[in-house]
Design a protein that fits this description.
Length: 575
């Protein structure tokens, strides 16, 4: 009863605690030193720039080509699916610029969570972190199920469900149990618990073989394919420009993975050099390979005959290269393993840093002293991913993943502009907030006009408004790059401010509005759930860790939440 009464008392204090904690921020020095110490042991700095490129490329390749290319070519873009990849790649590149500046200046494992918590406060960081975790867990489950499909082709089976167990009592799309996917996830979880560097070496080896294998598919596709398939039966863009852009929003799922490199910042030897090369290089290499692979598929088979599942293996069967289908199945399986390895590496580090902030139970933040890995977070998320992979079909979760990813990248772009102009250059926050609001509003209006096929002049009007307000802001609000160099010791930073993050904001908003209404409904349910968790648990846990213990030196907390004593004082910044 005491525990219950204490918790009820905490709930009665919710409004006060929300006011104290929602906008609470940390400085980069606090995030890098004091908060990181809560994990006990430090993560070991062993990675170099080529490790990051391999992690980024390996993380993205298996996801994109083998999971989304076939369905998008069949239903959205047709042969112009490679253009969808280019558009999504440009958006990912702009977002990666924002990630890179943050990662170099704040080289901790928290990625978007840490960047937004430093800039906009605790709740925005938590909201982004929860969405990134949802994206990782769901996408890893989806990719693991694709592994089973391609592995069956590697062993000469032409039925992608041959190794799945159908349970008639379960609802449709949840009744095909995938035990090979579960086994793969559990095996990789054990590997990641052992060591980051060894996992990185394994990924590097698999990625090298994977790129060679990609070369085989590209050459074989061009050799056996025909350029006529790019225009037959209904032209290169049978669903029009709208289909190409709708496809771009879905294939954005394929670029999940480059942000994994930013989560490895605590384990990089030279962050200032390695992070820009690793993050930007992996996005550029992956975009090129995506386009070549998409063209190869559409040249081998007319878009309306592409298989929705195991598209590349089925394409080789249709051109009577059955032996190549087996090779593709094996190579795709290897690529999917590499992408899973990287994604599961990143997701554990996100959860570890969220645990440091006490927004989830603190035992998830513990780093094993001998392996230097976030052991508890790795095991917990591995179990969650395996559970979802056992039941859930791929098409149910792809669009939910895309909207969550786009939302987080949109938030990071806003945070970069605010941090550069307000926190670094000390300009009045109202000017920057007004610019961000007007830019987002104009982007949304442009996107709505496009989505509902309104008058073309509306596109011109809102497009002109976006360009005008960005140009006006650039000239009226100063941004002194020398201050950035002085504050962050000549670290890498995004050039041509504020244009790159502004373009990222527009593209993320535009691509989000092309998704189906059901995606927004599912996302709204998820947003309500994580907000309720914050109100019922997170805010009370962080309040006790940061406010009561820091200000009063209290050793016994009034709620059954296990948190260590801290000697640091939280910095409250309300901009």
């Amino acid at each position: 009863m005491t525990m219950l009464s204490n918790y009820l008392y905490s709930l009665s204090q919710t409004p006060h605690r929300l006011r104290k904690r929602m906008l609470a921020t940390w400085t980069p020095d606090q995030e890098f030193n004091q908060v990181r110490q809560r994990s006990g042991a430090d993560m070991k700095r062993k990675l170099k720039w080529y490790d990051l490129i391999a992690l980024g490329v390996g993380g993205m390749l298996g996801v994109g080509v083998f999971v989304t290319t076939g369905p998008v070519a069949l239903h959205q873009s047709g042969p112009s699916v490679f253009i969808s990849y280019i558009i999504a790649g440009i958006s990912a590149l702009l977002s990666s610029l924002c990630y890179t500046e943050f990662a170099v200046q704040v080289p901790v494992a928290g990625g978007a969570f840490s960047y937004l918590r430093l800039t906009f406060g605790e709740f925005m960081g938590y909201f982004a972190g929860a969405n990134i975790l949802m994206e990782y867990v769901f996408s890893n489950a989806a990719v693991a199920r694709s592994f089973t499909e391609y592995l069956s082709f590697a062993f000469g089976e032409n039925n992608p469900n041959v190794w799945r167990v159908e349970v008639h009592g379960l609802p449709k799309d949840y009744n095909m149990l995938d035990f090979p996917a579960v086994a793969l996830i559990l095996l990789l979880t054990l590997c990641l618990c052992h060591s980051t560097k060894e996992s990185s070496i394994l990924n590097l080896i698999m990625t090298v073989f994977h790129v060679i294998f990609f070369g085989f598919i590209i050459v074989a596709g061009y050799y056996n394919g025909s350029s006529k398939n790019l225009v037959n039966p209904k032209g290169i863009a049978p669903y029009g420009v709208r289909g190409v852009l709708d496809g771009a929003a879905i294939v954005y799922f394929s670029y999940i993975g480059y942000d994994s490199a930013s989560t490895m910042a605590e384990e990089v030897k030279d962050p200032n050099k390695s992070l820009p090369i690793g993050i930007l290089g992996s996005v550029l290499i992956t975009t090129l390979l995506y386009c070549l692979m998409a063209l190869s598929l559409c040249m081998m088979v007319p878009y309306n005959k592409i298989s929705e599942k195991a598209s590349y293996s089925m394409a080789f069967i249709k051109i009577s290269w059955n032996w190549a289908s087996n090779i593709v199945g094996a190579g795709a399986s290897l690529g999917i393993v590499a992408s899973l390895l990287v994604a599961m590496l990143g997701q554990a580090r996100y959860l570890c840093v969220i645990g440091r902030a006490r927004l989830v139970p603190s035992w998830l933040a513990k780093v094993h002293p001998s392996t230097g890995t976030p052991l508890n977070a790795t095991v917990f998320l591995g179990f969650c991913t395996a559970t979802i992979a056992l039941f859930t079909e791929l098409d149910i979760i792809i669009e939910l993943i895309s909207i969550g990813t786009l939302m987080v990248f949109y938030m990071v772009a806003n945070a970069l502009i605010y941090r550069r102009y307000v926190i670094t250059n000390h300009t009045p926050p109202l000017h920057t907030l007004l610019f961000l609001f007007l830019l987002s509003l104009a982007s949304l209006c442009f996107s709505i006009v496009w989505k509902f096929k309104q008058q073309w002049w509306g596109l011109l009007l809102f497009g002109a408004i976006m360009i005008t307000i960005t140009t006006f802001f650039q000239h009226m609000v100063p941004c002194n790059n020398n201050l950035v160099q002085q504050q962050y010791a000549n670290c890498w930073y995004v050039p041509f401010m504020p244009w790159p993050p502004s373009m990222s904001i527009f593209l993320n908003v535009f691509l989000m509005t092309t998704l189906k209404t059901l995606s927004f409904q599912r996302f709204a349910l998820w947003a309500c759930f994580i907000t309720m968790f914050y109100v019922l648990y997170g805010v009370h846990s962080t309040y006790q860790a940061e406010e009561i213990e820091n200000l009063g030196g209290v050793n016994q907390v009034v709620m059954n939440l296990s948190v260590p004593n801290l000697q640091t004082k939280v910095e409250i910044q309300v901009h």
